[in-house]
Amino acid sequence: MNNTIDISHYAAIADSIRAEAARILEQGVVTAVVAYTTGRRAGSVQPVIITAAAEAERLTFTAASVNNLAVYLTKAKKDIPRSGRIGIVVKGCDLKALVGLMGESQLQRDQLYLIGIPCAGVLASTVRPAEALIAATLAPKCRECDAHLPEGCDYVPAVSLPSAPTLEPSYAAEIARLEALTPAERWAYWKEQFAKCIKCYACRQVCPFCFCEQCLCDRNKPQMVDTTPRPAGNTAWHIVRAMHLAGRCAGCAECERVCPMDIPLNLLNRKMAKELKELFDYEAGFAVHEKGPLNSFMEKDDQSFIK
Amino acid sequence: MQTYISHHNFHTLLDTLITGGIRVVAPRLTAGTLLYAPLGESGDMVLDQLPRRSAKEAFFPVCEDILSYEKGGQQVRLTDVEPATFPVTVLVGVRPCDAAAIPVLDAVFSWDYKDEFFLERRRKTTVIGIACTTADDACFCTAVGLSPAETKGSDLFLTPVADGGYLCDICSEKGEALVADGSSLFTELGNVTPLPFASPAVPAFDLKKVKGWLDGHFEDPLWDGTALRCVGCGACAFVCPACHCFDIVDEGTEKSGKRRKSWDACGFWKFTHHASGHNPRDKQPKRYRNRIMHKFKYYDDKFGQTLCTGCGRCVRICPVGIDIAAIVAEIDGMAVE
What we know:
The structure holds two protein chains of two kinds.
Chain A: H1 10-26, E1 32-38, E2 45-50, E3 86-90, H2 92-103, E4 112-116, H3 140-143, H4 170-179, H5 183-195, H6 202-205, H7 231-245, H8 254-258, H9 265-280
Parallel strand pairs in A: 1-3, 3-4
Antiparallel strand pairs in A: 1-2
Helix pairs in contact in A: 4-9, 5-7, 7-9
Chain B: E1 2-5, H1 7-19, E2 23-30, E3 33-38, E4 63-72, E5 75-80, E6 89-94, H2 96-99, H3 101-109, H4 116-124, E7 125-130, E8 156-160, E9 166-170, H5 173-181, E10 186-187, H6 207-216, H7 221-227, H8 235-239, E11 246-252, E12 256-263, H9 284-303, H10 313-317, H11 324-334
Parallel strand pairs in B: 2-6, 6-7, 7-8
Antiparallel strand pairs in B: 1-9, 1-10, 2-3, 4-5, 4-12, 8-9, 11-12
């Protein structure tokens, strides 16, 4: 199946981003814009932070604009100089992360200028950034996207979304497959995956919600989690990560995209999201919630675990 | 010296080694990812792609025990891991960029301190390298003075030929011994046509010029410009065939446990974090600067060569698209003779 994803409108989006970024920098609406620019390799795109209108011509948007740029606005990335209002280019999935960060009092809406992208999808991986965007190369998150059109942005390029092929959601199918296994089989699956982990922490470093100034896994007084890339420490790390993101993860799947060992990390996040939906009718979206489902109590919450 | 081995005989050679009790490590799909791993049979070997992690782990594993401790009363019993128990290994399908990194590691691990863990594995391992006939635009071995036909670091070097077999360059005594042991499988070099070597597109760097610039630009706007977006993971260092920093930690309980050595990376905030709380590399661009400085200046200062073999792994996997080839090209462009 070579379903081509129509992204013919991305060129117009890129033009609009350049014009809008130049305008808001020129008029002093923002002090900086976090966006995408092209790299050396054919088709490659990388995050960039510009502070002058003249730099706006470097900006782009393509199928390789995979990064969730929200990560640069968290307190974990405090080397990024910030003052005043910041412009940021967001896809729908990225916006959900920003909304989550606002809910956690990490960001204030009036300090952001959101440039929303009518997004038809991006590549699953940028190992080969020039690859054509087809069903097979599309990021799995995009197959089940409900956020093609970000809401509540300050600016959205005036382009219409081309119609997209209907694709089977892959996470749901894979979760169903794993749920059908016996606990021993499931354990064997994850053991094999976690055995590949080299503790590079790329999953943590790109996650907008991993903004702890010192990660539990980096602490050694006391040493909560073994630091070496061995079964005990790897498993502990991935459980800590999944649990700490439960009810917070907005589904950008950056953890999975950047894992150099191809560990299907977003499966854990999707499974958690599924549980949160079932237990608390909670889903990451475009509306700011002051308290996440695991930070608040409601009488209707399931209490069947109290025996 | 050159000889020839057919595709079939090459597999027979490896299967014979395996059944003879020799550990044969080659690129093999491991839980969906191509990694250097021990083969159960030669058919599991995948030679058409560069493995995700480099061949360094054959000598310098991701994590290894170096001793164990046990406490009983007032006594603490320490038991060393004995490198003599490491298995004899044949490492197969090593690309020139990975093989050329092995001598680079040799220099570090046998410098002032002789790392017996590394050196014993090195002594016991025969490296079968293989020339590259394809390259992508992340490959830049030719830019750092190597090539898809570079035999450095290989004991036996294979060049694929048109009929599916290999032209074999015998590069060392270990390679000679391997060919002698399987002599019936190698035949005289007939009229073979080697497949054309790959030609990576990145123009050659002037490494002396680059180093000259680095000598004088510890402080430079380039570092913020290229590395402010670095998110501070260790992916680049961990997939690198030449990065060799490691951490040593004790894991276990107060009663018993292990002392372990595992890969570390200068991109981590924690890497230079002092017990006092001070961190001399307090910002991410300073950490990324160290990566470039170590590869193209510090290592050269100490050992007279470059600590980068142009495999392009870090270029392909950097979460934020930091491209070391583009950065070094930029430095090369700014530097003056």
